[in-house]
Amino acid sequence: MTDIIQLLPDHVANQIAAGEVVQRPASVVKELMENAIDANATSIKLIIKDAGKTLIQVIDDGKGMSATDARLSFERHATSKIRSAEDLFDLHTKGFRGEALASIAAIAHVELKTKRDNDELGTQITLEGSEVITQDIVVTPKGTSIAVKHLFFNIPARRNFLKSNNVELRHIIDEFHRVALAHPDIAFAMYHNGSETFNLPNSNYRQRVVNIFGGKTNEKLVPVEEETEILKISGFVGKPEFAKRTKTEQFFFVNNRFIKSPYLNHAINSAFEGLVKEGSHPSYFLNLTVDPKSIDINIHPTKTEIKFDDEHTLYAILRSSVKHSLGQFNIAPVLDFEH
Ligand code: ADP
Ligand code: MG
Q1: ipTM > 0.85, yes or no
Q2: Could you tell me where in the chain the CATH 3.30.565.10 domains are found?
Q3: Ligand 1 centre from 65 Cα, in Å?
Q4: Residue 59: what are its φ and ψ, rounded to 5°?
Q5: d(CA 183, CA 34)
Q6: What are the start and end residues of each CATH 3.30.230.10 domain in the chain?
Q7: How far apart are CA 274 and CA 260, in angstroms?
Q8: Percent of the chain scored above 90 by pLDDT?
Q9: Which of 161, 227, 257, 274 matches a 20 to 30 Å C-alpha distance to 41?
Q10: Angle at 90 between CA 45 and CA 285, to 5 degrees
Q11: What was the pLDDT predicted at 338?
Q12: pLDDT number for residue 330
């Protein structure tokens, strides 16, 4: 009998990996926007056609890439962000897997334009299904533009599995909100089918929340600030009377990364206990800053779940500081009265 095991060709391996990283157009939006942030962009534009099914383009004014790096960026496990296994436990960037561009290029048509500040000319590369079609020297502004067209063109099953444009657009807007909330100091704009959906100037956190969720939000925000040896908390919770039927205004960011944490969510709910009706959900927009060495982000490809070293302590600090903030807000009218 002959041996039967073979290594998969790169383009097949990339397509398999893509299945994990890219579930829908919104996943591409997330990866491209995070790359723009890691490139120190100060302004990021997202351009979408047909809820991302036809086009997803992200344009940034970040540091750009050399011609060689631009070519390498589409290889799997190609990253400028970590060098060794130790770096995995002290992450300061959104990306580190070096998988996003390789995965996206495996299942779409991609056009990259990029230029570093000091280079006279930039690089343009087009790819289709992992294959480089053209590479040229071009005139292009500083920064990077990546256009992703015809997502899942070579995986009809995946393409058919996509939901209606309304649903896919909703997912894209959710990702856009998360990234924009995590980085109020960066300007963001979004365009869908040629019209402007969001235009968010760089600002502070309160202003960013208000710009996204509307002017009425301003009056309902109660600041939460706390600093302990292991955790810094900053942000806002909504006043209890503004609690919503949906969980659409619940955001945790850990070191500027949006995360889902039922456990920490429970800490907030318990701080609101007795203040909101059963079945309504308090709003919160909270940034937690912890030592990168005390968390593990590498448990899921989309990185929305993380593991904390000392979850119980975080829970206790979070709960008590939210309670404290709500308490201050509750006694405020009494103090006013005394004047
Ligand atoms: P990762 O972000 O995990 O490193 P990606 O596949 O997303 O992996 O990107 C690969 C590499 O390409 C990055 O490490 C970075 O060096 C480069 N890159 C990607 N997007 C940009 C961008 N918008 N600006 C500058 N460099 C970029
Ligand atoms: Mg990345």
Answers
A1: yes
A2: 10-200
A3: 9
A4: -120, 125
A5: 11
A6: 216-331
A7: 24
A8: 78
A9: 227
A10: 50
A11: 39
A12: 65
pLDDT averaged over every residue in the chain: 93
d(CA 174, CA 107): 23
When pLDDT is averaged across residues 241-246 and rounded to a whole number, the result is 91
Name the superfamily (CATH) of residues 10-200: Histidine kinase-like ATPase, C-terminal domain (3.30.565.10)
Pocket test for ligand 1, best of 59, 97, 101 (most atoms within 8 A of CB): 101
Report how far ligand 1's centroid is from the alpha carbon of 98 (Å): 7
Tell me, in angstroms, the distance from the centre of ligand 2 to residue 298's CA. Answer: 13
pTM for this structure?
0.92
Question: Tens digit of pLDDT for each residue in 186-204?
Answer: 999 999 999 999 999 999 9
275 lines ligand 1 (CB under 6 A): no
The CATH-assigned architecture of domain 216-331 is 2-Layer Sandwich (3.30)
**Pocket residue to mutate for ligand 1, from 34, 73, 81, most atoms within 8 A of Cβ:** 73
C-alpha 42/C-alpha 188 separation (Å) is 9
- What spacing in Å lies between the alpha carbon of 79 and ligand 1's midpoint? 6
Specify the pairing of strand 250-254 against strand 284-289.
parallel
Q: Is the CB of 71 under 6 A from ligand 1?
A: no
Q: Whose CA is nearest to atom 17 of ligand 1?
A: 73
For 48, the enclosing helix (H) or strand (E) is strand 43-49
Pocket test for ligand 1, best of 38, 75, 88, 186 (most atoms within 8 A of CB): 38
Alpha-carbon distance 232 to 211, whole Å?
Answer: 24
